[in-house]
Amino acid sequence: MTDSDIRGANTFNSPFGTEWQSVLVRTGVYQGEEPSWKPKFIANDVYDAVEWALKQSQWKESIH
Q1: Is residue 35 part of a domain?
Q2: Which pLDDT score, from 0 to 100, does residue 43 have?
Q3: Is the pLDDT of residue 1 over 60?
Q4: Could you give the CA distance from residue 29 to residue 20 in angstroms, rounded to a whole number?
Q5: 63 inside domain
Q6: What is the tens place of the pLDDT at every residue in 15-61?
Q7: Contacts (Cβ under 8 Å, ≥6 apart) of 10
Q8: Cβ-count burial of 15 within 10 angstroms (0-12 exposed, 13-18 middle, 19+ buried)?
């Protein structure tokens, strides 16, 4: 597993002042090893990762 995505999110300095959040998804290339860089959140699958991200953003679905 490469830690480059987690490291990139953790160390990114946004010119707009936004904070990036790193997420490790336990599917795909993940083999269960401890990452060198600690992610903000560890998700079991992509659905859990997206659900977490939407909650973190406080996004509200608009009804039209």
Answers
A1: yes
A2: 94
A3: no
A4: 22
A5: no
A6: 998 888 999 999 878 888 888 899 999 999 999 999 999 898 877 76
A7: 20, 22, 37, 38, 39, 40
A8: exposed
Whole domain around residue 31: which residue ranges? 4-57
Nearest Cα to 52, choosing from 30, 26, 29, 18? Answer: 26
Q: Which tokens in the block code for residue 39?
A: 């992610």
Q: What are the helix (H) ranges across the chain? A: 4-11, 46-57
Please tell me the total count of domains within the chain.
1
DSSP state, residue 59: -
Residue with tokens 């904070």: 19
In-domain check, residue 64:
no
Length of the chain: 64
> 2 near 8, Cβ under 8 Å?
no
Dihedral sign for Cα 7, 41, 30, 54, please: negative
